[in-house]
Amino acid sequence: MNKIEKILGFGLIFLMILSLIIDYPYSALLITIFAFVLSLIYCFLSFKLLNINKKDSTEKTSSLRNTGIILTGITLSLVVIGFLFKFLRWPNGGYILMNGLLGLIPILIITIFKLSKVNSEFYKNMLIRILIIGFFGTLLLFTKSETLLEMQCRNFPEYIEAEKNLMQDPTNKELERIANEERKKMHQSE
Question: pTM, whole model, 2 decimals?
Fold first, then answer.
């Protein structure tokens, strides 16, 4: 894996875990920046990032493999955006993450199949990348939004209760007003 990819990926995971443990300034902003940059790298620079290998030159790769590299980059980008949306409890986060993880399944199967036929460094790196991102994506997918809310705002039980009520009935304007008031109180006390 590339050095910048490791820094961004493990930095993103570290910032997410750290924000669950302590409340630090600009946590959501830092998490968003790390996820956004990593997602952009996967989406637009996947051909260079995923195809770095001293033994294989880009002239020797088939068009099918090149297409697979690009689709893998787009899928990994989608999973990272799903991380961001799900973790920050933005709308449709679980849906984006689930679609990205479903897209990783055929890529994982093809990678394992190709690795069993050809013992290549390219497929080993691809498998490691898919397993790490797939593991954290699956872990986050099966974490309930209420659990994330309780972990992120554990010092503000009134806000947690108001937000949970709003999650149960998102069209209720009164519950939305109460949740917004509790959010303002929470931000003022920080």
Answer: 0.86
